[in-house]
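On clarity, I found the account of how folds are encoded harder to follow than it need be. What matters is that the chain and its backbone geometry are given together, residue for residue. The format is easy to grasp once an entry is in front of the reader. For illustration, here is how one protein appears when written out as sequence plus structure tokens.
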Amino acid sequence: MPSSTLSVAVPYRSPLETFVACAHEMLDPATPEAARRRAEPRLLAVLPALQALGVFELFAIRDPALAEMVRDELEARRQRHG
């Protein structure tokens, strides 16, 4: 695997590395749908850690669909946890 390529299959990555790897995999048109479905829960699972670090206050997600998914998930978590 080239050093510039992150893989969601590699365990024990930081939350930011996991998010970036999953986002790239989900946004790559060559990624099979089954792989996208496997990456999505991994991406969503690291959102609380990234939010706690303030990542979303510093960086904007440029892909509209991904940005909407992240916003929706963070809002749903906020409502569940009051």
In short: DSSP finds five helices and no strands in the chain. The radius of gyration is 13 Å. The mean pLDDT is 89.
